Amino acid sequence: MAFFSFIKKEKARANTAAQTPPASGHLNFMGGVSYDPSSPILRLRLAASTCFFGEPMYYHRDEKDARPVKAAANPCRLSNEQVHYLRKTLDAVDPQAWRKMSPAELIESAIDEALDHDAEATLEEAARLRNEEHIRTTPQVILVRAANHHAVKGTGLVRKYAPRIIKRADEPAVGLSYQMFRYGKPIPNALKKAWRDALARFDAYGLAKYRLEGHAAKTVDVVNLVHPKSEAVHSLVKGEAKNTGRTWEAIVSARGSNRTAWKKAMAVMGHMAMLRNLRNMLAAGIKTDEIIPRLVAGAKDGKQLPFRYFSAYKAVEDKAPGALLDAIEKCLVGSLGELPYFRGRVMALADNSGSAQGTTTSAMGTMKVSTIGNLTGVLAGMRADEGHLGVFGDSLETLAVRKGASIFDQLKKAEELAKRIGTSTENGIWIFFDRAIRMKEHWDTIFVMSDMQAGHGGLYGTNKTQYREYGWGAGGQYIDVAKLVSTYRKRVNPDVKVFLVQIAGYKDTLVPEFYDRTYILGGWGEGLLRFAAEMEKAAEQAA
């Protein structure tokens, strides 16, 4: 009953507190007050760039999804029953339709809100997600929903943006599968024309590789629907477009997992396939000096999210020689391109609370969003005059980021620190700001990589006598994060820039977006650091 009483009071507080400009608050899953960004395009970006479509989230589940979830074994992860109880408790005093949504429905609602607001900007965001964030499925979903949206029909926008959204030969079939699942027939003509144009662009190798035999919607099904014309398509329809001996999968399948097969397969493997099969190649007897040149050469145009390289590193860490481990890190650096530089002292605070450690990128994946946040923090720190990483949960552990040291070694150190900070709260943010205010520590830029479920005021403290000035809520146990930022600016550095980086697919912000020099970002890739630098530059020019 105490929790009910508390969230009733805080819902009232969210709706009555004076804000300039006004902000509409809601209770997040921690019972604190959070805010949605005002721009539907930004809300879509936060959700779509930090969650693969339809994959389980910490607080959102699809009860119809029968896939096993590897992360379920994580002690930090809530059971479905606990999520249901939490949702029911919050909805009793602050009903929100989005709390009941599955992960797929959550992104779909963000897409539709964005389309209602600005259809062309939404399709532009889909193209950005596909090309800059390297997200594949969600852009196809955006394209399909746009084609079925009343504001888009007859505008030509679908065909205009489709070439930048459909980049691989299997993606028209992905779109068809989603169209039939959500809308059925009739299929919008603009969508059929976009698929036809795309299929006509792909060569015989691409069409053969991505035939999707055994899937509900096959590439040949799309061909029969839209009738594209090209020699490659003609070969596919006649059954002549075979991948026998042409793709690495076909080569290994035909010859078995042995040295000869893998050596032949390497010649046609893409960069991502090489990353994922390093362990198999080593086990088959492929020498590292045969792997490294091709692996490193493919990194620049490999279009991989940074965490993919750490996944590859972890997969072979126990058996690969140092030269290969170094090469994987070299690939990461090569894939990043020229990252922006952040002047002065930079602190990257990375969320390692239970919800961040209990969320993985996919149902069968093991990559935690907390690890992604830690990696992003290390990268940000390495691109600063003086960079630091703060790993937070119940407590806070910090480490100085060293430019000349291994990225992965520093990331592994952060992962070890995360094991002993406690995962029940986000109290580490309070510890950081309290120390920075008391000790007058000068920071020029502060990144906060988090699922933002602490929310404005949802930061649960452990000793309220320490933060009377910032406490509010039931018994003063909750800490006003925005007030912490404001106080730091008043007493230490009025020009500090704060970047709030969403890493887990939610649309909540840690503080209201209109706070001066406070920026809201989202993403799993290095692009968010470039965007942060662009926002900083734009603000300086405006000033």
UniProtKB/TrEMBL annotation:
InterPro entries membership: Telomerase_Complex_Comp, TROVE_dom, TROVE_dom_sf, vWFA_dom_sf
GO molecular function: telomerase activity; telomerase RNA binding
One GO term (biological process): telomere maintenance via recombination
Residue stretches making up the TROVE domain: 246-318
Record-linked Gene3D superfamilies: von Willebrand factor, type A domain (3.40.50.410)
Protein name (Swiss-Prot/TrEMBL): TROVE domain-containing protein
